[in-house]
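Tokens for chain A. Residues wanted.
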């Protein structure tokens, strides 16, 4: 209980110029003597609390310790807090949390945030992200086995530079000592990640924006029309949220996929719906899905 009060008093002092001992005692329903001891404990923790004499005197935190509210607008602060909170769900970063707490002290009001992101809610790669972030900070090389888009396996030793979230996936921007050039590696295709004791001193200046991200984009396919049975509409909308959609009277859903990114990706997505989807157009895609279904059936001839 005392710890919670100390933290609350600290934030109260950060949000106000001066607070008297009587105000604090009334707010926390304790004696002024208890407030004096709490202020001493806060000072002992390294937070610079100063006392002001006079009629309007009391306690406050020196201005140099606070962030200047005039530097950032309310929208700027909210955006920064949202970004820091989202990364805090992935990375165990005490400095980030400290910055987040200090930004919250200059946030006006207690309104609910208009935007929230939780990058850590999907737990895939979280351990590797933390490991790579630590390696980047300590400038240590890492080694892993990698499988590229052509299913080619190789062992890579790299100098990690930065992490990038793009195309709904995490990528590592690194200098590959095997290829002697900068590369982008998709974290979901990395296995057996190991941080090496080797510390690199190379000054990496090539930005991630200059490197292409392997995204398996194949030859263009003509628009596809898919019919989803009632009961599978929610998942179909998750998969094809940006496409043209039309609900039918029987509760089914028709989706027109404009300029699909790749035949294999689209066919695999269609097959994941099983009997709840039918390809209406084009005939080439319908034939491809039919051929894949026949191959699947051949694998399960013996049950």
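Reply:
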């Amino acid at each position: 209980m005392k710890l919670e009060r100390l933290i609350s008093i600290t934030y109260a002092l950060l949000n106000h110029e001066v607070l008297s001992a009587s105000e604090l005692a009334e707010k926390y329903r304790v004696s002024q003597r208890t407030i004096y001891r709490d202020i001493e404990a806060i000072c002992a923790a390294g937070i610079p609390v100063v006392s002001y004499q006079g009629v309007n005197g009391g306690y406050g935190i020196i201005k140099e310790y606070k962030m200047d509210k005039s530097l950032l607008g309310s929208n700027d602060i909210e955006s920064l807090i949202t970004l820091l909170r989202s990364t805090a769900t992935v990375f165990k970063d005490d400095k980030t949390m400290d910055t987040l707490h200090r930004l919250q002290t200059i946030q006006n009001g207690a309104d609910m945030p208009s935007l929230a992101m939780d990058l850590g809610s999907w737990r895939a790669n979280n351990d590797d992200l933390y490991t790579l972030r630590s390696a980047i900070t300590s400038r240590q090389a890492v080694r892993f086995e990698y499988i590229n888009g052509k299913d080619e396996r190789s062992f890579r030793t790299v100098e990690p530079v930065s992490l990038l979230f793009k195309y709904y996936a995490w990528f590592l921007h690194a200098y590959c000592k095997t290829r002697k050039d900068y590369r982008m590696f998709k974290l979901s295709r990395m296995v057996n990640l190991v941080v090496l004791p080797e510390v690199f001193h190379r000054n990496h200046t090539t930005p991630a924006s200059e490197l292409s991200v392997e995204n398996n984009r194949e030859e263009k396919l003509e628009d596809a029309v898919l019919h989803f049975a009632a009961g599978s509409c929610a998942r179909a909308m998750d998969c094809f949220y940006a496409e043209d959609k039309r609900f039918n009277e029987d509760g089914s859903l028709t989706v027109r996929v404009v300029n699909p990114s790749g035949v294999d990706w689209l066919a695999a997505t269609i097959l994941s719906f099983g009997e709840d989807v039918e390809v209406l157009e084009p005939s080439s895609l319908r034939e491809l899905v039919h051929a894949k279904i026949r191959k699947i059936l051949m694998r399960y001839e013996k049950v």
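The CA atoms of residues 20 and 58 lie 4 Å apart. The radius of gyration is 28 Å.
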